Amino acid sequence: MDVPAKLPDPVPSPILRHSPSSGSAMSRSLRSVVDMPSVTFAADMRSDSTRGAESTASSFESFRRAGSRPVPGVARLPTRRSASERAGSQRDLRDEDARFVYINDAARTNAPPARFPDNSVRTTKYSVLTFIPRNLYEQFHRVAYVYFLILAALNQVPQLGVFSPVASVLPLAFVLGVTAVKDAYEDWRRHRSDKNENNRTASVMVDGVFRPKPWSDIHVGELVRVVANETLPCDMVLVSTSDPTGVAYVQTINLDGESNLKTRYAKQETMTTPTEALAGLIKCEKPNRNIYGFLATVDLDGRRAVSLGTSNIMLRGCELKNTAWAIGVAVYTGRDTKVMLNNSGAPSKRSRLETHTNRETIVLAIVLALLCTLVSLLAGIWLSDHSDELGVIPYFRKKDFSDPNEVENYKWYGTGAQVAFTFMMAVIQFQVMIPIALFISMELVRVGQAYFMVQDKHMFDEKRQARFQCRALNINEDLGQIKYVFSDKTGTLTENRMEFRCASVHGGDFSETDGGEADGHAVTEDGVVLRPKTAVKTDPKLMAMLKDGTGAKADAARDFFLTLVTCNTIVPIIVDDTEDPAAARRLVEYQGESPDEQALVYAAAAYGYTLVERTSGHIIIDVFGTRQRFDVLGLHEFDSDRKRMSVIIGCPDKTVKLFVKGADNSMFGVIDKTMNPDVVRATEKHLHAYSSLGLRTLVIGMRELSQEEFQEWQMAYEKASTALLGRGGLLRGVAANIERNLRLLGASGIEDKLQDGVPEAIEKLRQAGIKVWVLTGDKQETAISIGFSCKLLTREMTQIVINSNSRDSCRKSLDDAISMVNKLRSLSTDSQARVPLALVIDGNSLVYIFDTDHEDKLFEVAIACDVVLCCRVAPLQKAGIVDLIKKRTSDMTLAIGDGANDVSMIQMADVGIGISGQEGRQAVMASDFAMGQFRFLVPLLLVHGHWNYQRMGYMILYNFYRNATFVFVLFWYVLHTGFTLTTAITEWSSVLYSVIYTAVPTIVVAILDKDLGRRTLLKYPQLYGAGQREESYNLRLFIFFMIDSIWQSLAVFFIPYLAYRKSTIDSASLGDLWTLAVVILVNIHLAMDVIRWNWITHAAIWGSIVATLICVMVIDSIPILPGFWAIYKVMGTGLFWALLLAVIVVGMVPHFVAKAIREHFLPNDIQIAREMEKSQDSHDVTHPEVQMNTMARA
């Protein structure tokens, strides 16, 4: 079909208005169309496959004849993403790697062997049938649970039965049951959400008519119609929209967190065909997770294949905005949609403290084995010594005399077998040496700690009204042991809100904006005054030159701002003026994916070049009150390979110009330096000055295209965009061929302001002994300037700079750096007086280092420096730097960033934190924790991190001590009962000891206790070093706790034993006394270590003792259980209460004495600060701060 050389002008998009007072989500589009990163030409932006050289020439000539109204058309390269993200859209598509979708023919599309999934989603883990087996399978991944299961199974063997079958299974069943209930509730919530999602309705074409249909019933190949503000039910290729130009706006906030509108468009071939008659074949890539890439072709009946790209597909979860309706063909449904493929949740990590717990668990397992071995050997010796009496001893009953005519062995398998039975029975008896309740207690404590972190008002982002997010509950305590912080710069240390500060135009520096106005340049449309939403200060000289200047410099300045306003993907939107909504005045808000582009367009508006309207083929610019139309003939979007963006513009004077902007290291390679060399040198000087001020810089260039050059470009682009093989390389070649021999117009300087509190936060982290490394993609000068402004770098620091362009020079730089470090070390032996060092290294040097195995040299230099600043680094290099430290030290690492380029770094670090900023939610989705500002890192680490580590460390040690005390009491009893593994303590008390009697107090204390207040921890950041030195949990403390448990078990057992040794008290009564004594003792031990009391702590500790007494009384009140009424008999005597008091006093004396000596004669930093808190008064203001230790005291 022939396509006319000239198409009618696009009809403006529907107008929507936004009113803050009414809360409406609507806004008015200035007939804007943008972000179409795929194929098109000057003759027709929607058709990239039906025109050849003849139509190319005619289109150029029609533009020449039409003047300011040429044929609208746009040609685009792939979207503004990294090379890895765009790989999916530029690789070759082979049949075996493709999915074939027949448009409006779901039956044929899904016919065998295809059978694509329907559109239902399922995020649940379990079903009714699979819940029990799968949940148990997941829980038994914990080796400790397998250990307790084996012991419960052994207890079912008659010869090994220590507890009753029910009692032996109860502790494990309780722990498994609580976890199962939690998992079931979470999965039920997911099931309910899935049901609501699947039952939503969409308009699907059935028999030529659109009918309502549940989302779950949509199939690949069906045509789906979506109206404004509706959510897209599946991934679909756009075939038609309400806009005659085929444009549709989508908001991807549910997909990647970006709120700015993005433009998608339908191909002209599908737009011109009635929807009910639409048929053809889409050949697309198989489902993948890349939300920024899409590779496909569509072959309509009687036509050749037309290429499809990212701008032609709308993804599930996006919302249709500013477009009345859109129709698409479903290509990915259900679990194949990109949003579901990316729904992987938070990464799974294991805390350092939990890993260290394995060490102590192994020690306890060895102790348990030694105890069991000792008991079994002693039992063997006892059996050998009493072998003649075994026939009549009731416990063994070696002989069965029930039949007087025949005497035979009864329940006797020989001494060797009995010794083996004794060993296994001892393992069952002493099994609580490894606390089964510890694991579920840790989970509950982490949930409680996460609650208080989320509710902390000091980490609430007022600007975004966003709370702190705890996405990984299993590494809370790691926040208290961080030694290295790896931070992105843009959007993490800075606001990622750009402000135009200065410009270099034709060799002249225009940065004197102090005297300029900041009101912006207002324009008028239909009697309404439109003013840019963001005002920019202007340079009076530059403004005067733009208005009245003549000559080459003035012409260059006008082209400079013309480049700023045209070479972008900005969408102008009109919103109400909140300051005066009733006035005939509105604000122009520029929306786009790049904050840099927004700043440049606002700057152009301030200098009189106001972007008013953008459609698929032209741009309307108000130039000092005069409307001018510029036609977009082609567009090559920015990408991380070329590092530049270009646009081909048809100007009102009938000339065709190529405007280009990009990074300096990319642009100077395509600038014609023989043209105005003085301008080039001056611009380079200005760029260096801007970078030294910490500004982000861009270089601007242009050239005028002849008719032959334009035709050559258009034919090359048509050929490249329709190629089925090697399309990506051909497109890159077309862009590189046209972007050459440019005339330098100037450069811009944009300031990315620091976030509030960043310098203070970095200083606090440094005082806490945390090393902060910044990994950024910015220029070295910019990064160094930001480093000084945020106090990362100081004037006292000696900078080691490594900028190498070859492997040999990189190796020599590293050797020189090592020599310098060693020399400075030898000169300053005192750690307090040593010279601080800062390492500055660029991405090129890192490439050579990682390629030539010089990581060890880099590591040696880096750890000797106080600060490391990496410039021009790629995302994988960021992860490589983190891995450099993780592999060679045992120090904990934390990575923090806000963009997709920080994801690999965040996932590599021990703790990953995402900043919910301007660059979407990719970093948040990959993180363990998420927050709104970098400064929140200070309360997170210094306050919550310290609390979490101190609490969790103590809770783990206390659990080991508590259970060991109980086991040693049982052990002493076994030694006095012929090693028969009988026990005076009832089996139910043994089972309930670690689950009911003593579990609640330790959980409450681990959630609520605070060794120091927030104010003290922030005032003295050095206190954070206690976690880095593992002062709250280490092998030495574990040994002390175990010694304490042995002593207290001796007191619990022998004081009552010696008192009742010659009495007639029964074992059950003595067992009840031991049960109460050990419970009271361990709870008083806990109470003695509590720092801050509240009513919940009181209720938990003292209530646990009362609950134990009640449980013992209930157990002894059941006639069928052993020890019926025993507690009531022994409680009536004064000796019972005297013995309880004696046990408590004797058992706690060593702990009390050790605590008093440690705190009064050998205090550590924490204890000193705690005493300061107790005596806190007016002396805090007048007395100097206490110097904190940097090393742990013995």
Q: Trace the largest sheet across and list its strands.
A: 17-38-37-36-18-32-35-34-33
CATH topology of the largest domain: Calcium-transporting ATPase, cytoplasmic domain N
Shape: elongated
**How would you name the CATH homologous superfamily of the largest domain?**
Calcium-transporting ATPase, cytoplasmic domain N
Percent strand equals 15-25%
CATH class type of the largest domain: Alpha Beta
Secondary structure: number of strands:
38
Query: What's the helical proportion of residues?
Result: 40-55%
The mean pLDDT is 81
Poorly predicted segments: 1-62, 64-90, 1185-1194
- Judged by helices, strands and strand pairing, the structural class is alpha+beta
Number of helices: 39
Rg over C-alpha atoms, rounded to the nearest angstrom: 38 Å
CATH architecture of the largest domain: 3-Layer(aba) Sandwich
The biggest beta sheet, please?
A: 9 strands, mixed
Number of domains: 5
The rounded distance between the terminal residues' Cα atoms is 89 Å
Biased composition (Polar residues): 52-61
Transmembrane segments: 166-185, 362-383, 419-440, 960-979, 991-1008, 1037-1059, 1071-1088, 1100-1128, 1134-1154
Organism: Leersia perrieri
Catalytic activity: ATP + H2O + phospholipidSide 1 = ADP + phosphate + phospholipidSide 2
